[in-house]
Specification:
The complex is a heterodimer of chains A (about 150) and B (about 180). Chain A has about 150 residues and is mainly α. Chain A is built from eight helices and no strands. With about 180 residues, chain B is α+β, with helices and mostly antiparallel strands. The chains are: A mainly alpha (about 150), B alpha+beta (about 180).
Chain lengths: ~150, ~180
């Protein structure tokens, strides 16, 4: 089985690791599980024979893998929904401000478009393609996500 | 609204320093193990093939395959299981770039086999084999609509792999989103 060129893999790993970890943590809310999921995704990428057009194509593929991996994580028997209180007592290497607290507690279906639209800068059409969801669904979920944020922050 | 605020808050999420490099090293350490297993497998394969052929020759001469010999005690289900076990062979997956990958412990169940291929990221992960129907000597493989948007090389590679694997059937037909692939 062929693997990717190691230098090229390292470049992609360095470029997208933090974003992918951020996206996964937002859903999973556990450091160890998030790290395991991101490791599995990059491992899959390293072994994958898929040909990519450019870095953006790779990023979209990695995000889609992360989306599916997060769903699998929620479906797992061992799944435990981490509460905000648990998060605040966990020894995290970062602070959780008011906005992040709302984002972390938001249902995953709203987290996806909020993260991809506001953080990654994707359009709703691009998000629909990445998540393989109808465009109208993504637009509605983004709108509801925004409303949730506003309600909690106002 | 608060685009900058959202970005700033999300930016805060970070992994423990050092963990990122640890994960990178783990990935590289994990990968060669597969290569080693595969190389071992490739070394063993010719000997295993010769052993299987010899076993077949011996079994034919010993009359193990004679009809009406103890078969009455075997139920249909049992015999199907035996056939399935006998068919749990290797699967040669064609990749879009024309190269091949040998899966040594391929499942005879097409859906399970597809899952094995998905686990190894042989084909795009959004393509899912949803259903398999067998109609006499024709096998129908139903994929989701992601196959429709896959490039021609990927579609050809998937079709070639499964057509060869199910060569015992007269015809293997592929569908995406319910529509046959031309």
């Amino acid at each position: 089985m062929k693997t990717r060129d190691q230098a090229e893999f390292k470049r992609i790993y360095d470029r997208y690791f933090d974003d992918l970890y951020r996206y996964v943590f937002l859903h999973v809310k556990q450091q160890e599980d998030s790290a395991d999921i991101v490791q599995e995704i990059f491992y899959k990428f390293y072994l994958s024979a898929k040909v990519f057009h450019d870095d953006e194509h790779i990023k979209a593929w990695l995000l889609r893998c992360a989306y599916h991996a997060s769903i699998d994580h929620f479906r797992a028997k061992s799944y435990h929904d981490v509460t905000l209180d648990e998060l605040k007592t966990a020894s995290l290497p970062f602070e959780i401000d008011e906005t992040l607290a709302v984002l972390l507690q938001m249902p995953a279906k709203y987290q996806d478009p909020i993260y991809m639209y506001y953080y990654e800068g994707y359009s709703t059409e691009e998000i629909a393609k990445i998540l393989k969801k109808p465009h109208a669904t993504v637009r509605t979920q983004l709108k509801r996500g925004r409303e949730l944020l506003k309600d909690h922050l106002s | 609204m608060q685009t900058e605020q959202i970005k700033r808050s999300l930016d805060a999420i970070q992994i423990d320093s050092g963990k990122k490099e640890e994960i990178y090293a783990d990935i590289l350490n994990k990968a060669p193990q597969i290569h080693t297993k595969k190389r071992k497998l490739q070394r063993i394969m010719p000997y295993a093939s010769v052993a299987v052929v010899l076993l077949c020759v011996v079994s034919v001469y010993s009359g193990w395959f004679n009809q009406n010999q103890g078969l009455s005690s075997i139920s249909d289900e049992d015999s199907q299981n035996k056939i399935s076990l006998a068919m749990a062979v290797s699967f040669q997956a064609y990749l879009p770039d024309g190269s091949t990958v040998l899966l040594a412990d391929a499942s005879v169940d097409a859906v399970q086999l597809w899952q094995q291929l998905a686990d190894l990221a042989i084909y795009p992960d959004d393509i899912i084999l949803e259903q398999v129907d067998i109609d006499g000597q024709t096998m129908h493989l139903y994929f989701n609509d992601a196959l429709q948007s896959a490039d021609a090389d990927t579609i050809n590679a998937i079709c070639q792999s499964f057509t060869e694997f199910y060569a015992d059937y007269q015809t293997v037909l592929f569908y995406t989103n319910g529509t046959p692939i031309a």
